[in-house]
Amino acid sequence: MKPVILVGAVLLSVVAGWTDLRSRRIPNWLTVSGLVIGIAANTALGGWGGLKTSLLGAAVGLALLLPFVLLRSLGAGDWKLAGALGAFAGPGILVDLLLGSVFVAGVMAVALVIYKGRVRQTIRNIGHILISLVTFQLPGSRVSLDNPDSLKVPYGVALAFTVVLYGILWKMGVVA
Fold it and tell me: Distance between CA 88 and CA 103 in Å, rounded?
C-alpha cells in the first residue's frame, strides 16, 4: 500500500472511531466522502489498476459485513466504514483488517462483559445464538442491537484501532 493511501485510511478510521466512541454513530458524510477519496486516490496513484483494486476492496467490505447488518448485529455506519476502508486498502489488506478487528472487538467485548458484571447473561445469550444456528432460526431480539439492555461494543472503534495498529506495523516494516 502506498504511504498516502495508508495515511488516508488511518485518518478516516481515527475520525470514524472517535465519532463512534462519542456518539455511537458513524455519519454518512464521513463514510461516503471516505469512499470517494479512497477511490480517487487509488485511481490517481494506480490508474485503472488502482480503480479496480479500490472498487473491489469497497465491494468486498460491503459484501462481507452485509449479513451482520441484516441480522442487526452490526450498525450500518460500521458497514459503510468497512466499504470506505476497502476503497483505500483494497480487498486483500481489508480482509486482514476485518479479521484483526474481529479479534480486537472480541477483546473489547470480554472486557466490557467483565466490567459490567454480565458474564452469566452473556453465556446464556451465546447459548441462544448457538441453538439458533443449529435450528436455522434467528435468535430473536434478545441478542440483537434492537435490545436496549444489550451491551454494545463500538465496532468502529475496534476497526479504527486495527487500522492504526496496521499503520504502525507497516511503518516498522512488519507488514507489507
Answer: 21
